[in-house]
Design a protein that fits this description.
The protein is an all-alpha fold and 100 residues long. The chain is built from 4 helices and no strands. α2 packs antiparallel against α3 and α2 packs across α4. It comes from Brevundimonas intermedia.
């Protein structure tokens, strides 16, 4: 008769699923990351635009442009985003499961 061996993985308790508040926090963080990414990707598109002219906002527009880009990015994420937050969230959940 052969000896039976038990894998150490079978002795380890199964990783618990993240709790709802923790999962919500991870989702919030992933969406914030996506918004920051989108904002940084939009920034070069607006750097060369002149703020002078008949309907330009002058120095005030140039000063507050980064805030406008941040809000545009947040609105994009709220409307469904570009799919980056789902990937980031999945990786964060994997990392959390590996830690437990």
């Amino acid at each position: 008769m052969s000896d039976l061996t038990v894998s150490p993985d079978l002795l380890r308790p199964a990783a618990a699923a993240p709790t709802a508040p923790n999962r919500d926090k991870i989702e919030e963080t992933a969406k914030a990351f996506e918004a920051t990414f989108i904002s940084q990707m939009l920034k070069p598109m607006f750097e060369g635009l002149s703020t002078d002219g008949l309907f330009g906002g002058g120095q005030g527009e140039a000063t507050w442009r980064s805030f406008m880009l941040d809000e545009m990015a947040k609105s994009t994420v709220k409307a469904g985003g570009i799919g980056l937050s789902n990937t980031v969230m999945a990786e964060m959940l994997k990392m959390q499961e590996g830690r437990q």
